[in-house]
Amino acid sequence: MARIVLGLGTSHSPLLPLTAEQWIERGEDDRRNPRLNLSDGRFLTYPELETEVSGRYASEATLENFTNQWRRSQQALDRLASELADAQPDVVVVVGDDQEELFRKTNIPAIALYYGQDIIMRPLASMPVPPWLISTGVGAGYSMDRARQHPGAPELGLFLIEQLMEAGFDMGAVSALQNGAEQGLGHAYGFVIHRLLAGRSIPLLPVLLNTYCRPNVPTPARCYQLGQALRRALEQYPEDLRVVLVASGGLSHFVCDEALDQRILTAIRNGDAATLCQIPRGALSSGSSEISNWVTVAGAMQGRPCKWSEYVPVRRTPAGTGIGLAFLTWAGEAST
Could you say which DSSP state residue 334 is in? Predict the structure, then answer.
C-alpha cells in the first residue's frame, strides 16, 4: 500500500518569494483594495478598516519587523524542505486551490484531481494579474516564469479518482494540460515545486479544491471528510509508495486574523476535528479560504501527531492588513 510518511502545511503567499523591502510595497496595494475581508464575513475598504482598527498595528508595520519575519519564514521553509527531502517520497500529493490558472469561474469543479503524465505550469504573464506580480519576479518563485514541466503521477492519480468516486466524492478529473498559453497548474503547486522540492523531480499529484468561487465551495466538514477518504484510498493502493502530503496556502488574509489562525493551528495540533469542521463560512472568504486545504490534510493526518509548527502574523499596514504565515509538519507512518 502507499504510506503517508510525512504531512506538511505551508503558506504560499507572494511575500515569501519577495524581499522584506517589497513587503512595504504590498502594504501600499492593501490601501487600494476595496474589499478587505474580515473573518466575521464583512468586506471593508482600507479607510473603513483603518477607522475600525485605529492604527493598532503601526509598531508592527516596519521594515525592521518585516526583516525579522521574513527571516523566520525562510527558516521555516528551509525546515520543511529538509524534512521533505529526508522523507524520501516517491510522490508528493499537494492539496491546493485554483485561482483561474486552470479552471474558469464559469466552469469550476468543487473538487478535482490532475492525473496527467506531465504537469505544465501556467506562465504568470499569460494571466490578468497586477503588473507588480510580473515585475517583482514572483513568477519564478511560483515556477510560473514560463511553462515549466514537472512529472505527474498518472497511475496513482487515476486510482485515487476511482476510489474517491466509490467513496461518494464526485470528482473532477483532468488528464492533460495545454502548454501554458491558456491553462496550466498554478501557484499553489508551483510554490511547492520551487521552494520545497528545490529542483528534485519527484512526481507531484495535485488535488484542486474550489475554495474561492461560490456557489460550489466545499464546506470545512466536507474537506475534512475528503482528507479521510484520501488517506483510505492511498492505503488501498497496491504498490508500496512513500507519500508526502502537503497543504498549500493560507492562513488568514488579506487582513491578518491571529485569533482565527491560532484557533486553527491549535485544533490541528490537538486533533480537534470538531473545531476544524465547524469553521464559519464567513471566515473563509478570499485568500482565507485556503484554510480549507489545511483542513483537508488534517483529515488525512487524523491521529498522527503534529511534530512542529511556526506562525508569523504579518501586518503590512497600521490597519493590520496582511497574512498569517503558517508552517507545520505532521508525523507520518513510521518506516518498517
Answer: P
Question: Minimal CA–CA distance to 49: which of 38, 59, 39?
Answer: 38
Q: Which residues pair with 206 in a beta bridge?
A: 94
Q: Is 326 helix (H, G, I), strand (E, B) or coil?
A: strand
Domains delineated in the chain: 3-331 (3.40.830.10)
pLDDT in tens, 204-238: 999 999 999 999 999 999 999 999 999 999 999 99
Residues contacting 7, CB < 8 A, separation 6+: 244, 245, 246, 247, 297, 300, 301, 304, 329, 330, 331, 332
- 236 and 163 Cβ atoms separated by less than 8 Å: yes
Q: Measured between alpha carbons, how far is 307 from 310 in angstroms, rounded to an integer?
A: 11
**Averaged confidence pLDDT in the chain:** 95
With beta carbons less than 8 A apart as the criterion, state whether 328 and 309 touch: yes
254 upstream amide cis, omega within 30 of 0: yes
Return the CA Rg of the chain: 19
- In 191-207, which positions are buried (b, 16+ CB within 10 angstroms) versus exposed (e)? bbbbbbbeeeebbbbbb
Work out the angle at residue 213's Cα, subtended by the Cα atoms of residues 249 and 118, and round it to the nearest 5 degrees.
Answer: 60
- How far from chain centre, in Å, is Cα 271? 20
**Packed helices 220-236 and 291-300: angle between N→C axes, nearest 10 degrees:** 40
Q: What is the pTM of this model?
A: 0.97
